[in-house]
Amino acid sequence: MKALHDPQGILKQGLDAIRSEFAVPRSFPPQVLAAAERAANRAPTQHVDRTDLPFVTLDPASSTDLDQAFLIERTGPDLLLRYAIADVAWFVEDGDPVDVEAWHRGETLYLPDGKAGLYPPVLAENRASLLPDGPRPAIVFAVRVDPDGEARLEGVERAVVRSRAKLAYDSVSSADLPEPFADLASRIAAAEARRGAARVDPPQQEVERLAGDRFALSFRPMLASETANAALSLATNLAVARFLLDHRTGLFRVMAGPDERAVARLRQSAHALGLNWPAAVDLKDFERTLDARDPAQAGFMLAVRRAGSGAGYAPWHAGAEPWHAAIAAPYVHATAPLRRLADRYVIRAALALAQGEQVPDAVTQAFDRLPDVMARADAIAGRIERAVVDLAETVMLHGREGEVFGAIVTDAEGASARIQLEGVPVIARVKAADARPGQTFPVRLEKSDPATRQLSFALA
């Protein structure tokens, strides 16, 4: 899970239990590994040579499954982003053992100490990954970004590319990057603000050891290089979404915004964390003021992430415009095919249409099947993420049984109340008859058991 870091291995025993509970695969069936080995030797024959272009990648230093490489050029007032995406479909054919296993998995599952990949490592971390150790087959999207940050797809082609450098978020300098990199990120951010987008990128949490047997959860905000790099994927996914909509096809990422009840809970969470959220300011505008370097504001960003109704996938249908509330625009996933099954089919559709061809029947049929498959995969990933957070919270509070915390009610139903601890990024439940949202009272920690990931509070 990318949202939590455990460099000292404090959570190892609990993570092993989570893997067993959720049947997280530790490897691939032999026939899948054998098929992947054969596919890895497939030489690109339908690709133009773009190895002269100075592509680079930008990812966490330890990453080896590199989906994207990029270069950016100025063309008059516009910026031209060439975004090379791993050509997974070149190695994985419809119905082969690797494809069947990918449909079973849906997406890569992340835990703080490792991952269960969507594809075998010989592909995901070697031949299909855009590593700088040789030419790689890719799908190159040409995306034009105008001064207002509007992104438009100009072309899609299969190409062989060679990355010049594997850059890392924590060590990259502006001199390593294409000159317009920061300008492109700024344009995309400005366009988001005009649309009223409300993407929340919570900081990563890290488990750290304190004196004795005490632990804490600290926050590591996203680095500026991470935020800017995300703009490249955002611009491409927006451009591809518009392109597919124009052709009346596609698979879209859709999400409704938080309902009134969720927003009311968030206002109580903000109050519990000591944040000033004026009544006249809506959630989207308040989110844009948050600073992930502040622990209280970082905790609220996590609360926002958990408050949404969740995103899903929907194929294009006449008369129903797909909408992503957080992006405030139609949106697709097309830039991480090594990690998400859906991306491979969105890419295939965009490539076919850009080449003046019909979308393959296999892709159109996949668009109808993928929402259920991806929903199941997202649900498993979400349950694992929740379990990891629960584990981290119980480890942090273990040994503090009997301690009294201030709490504020964010939601209440019957004799049960959902509470946000004051000054601590923990949401829990407590028995409290007739509790009302916004009410504050002290609670005593009765139990914090890392083995069962259970927290128990009682009114103090």
UniProtKB/TrEMBL annotation:
A Pfam cross-reference name: RNB
Domain of life: Bacteria
Entry GO MF terms: 3'-5'-RNA exonuclease activity; RNA binding
GO-annotated biological processes: mRNA catabolic process
GO cellular component term of the entry, any: P-body
Domain RNB: 47-356
Protein name listed in UniProt: RNB domain-containing ribonuclease
Organism: Novosphingobium olei
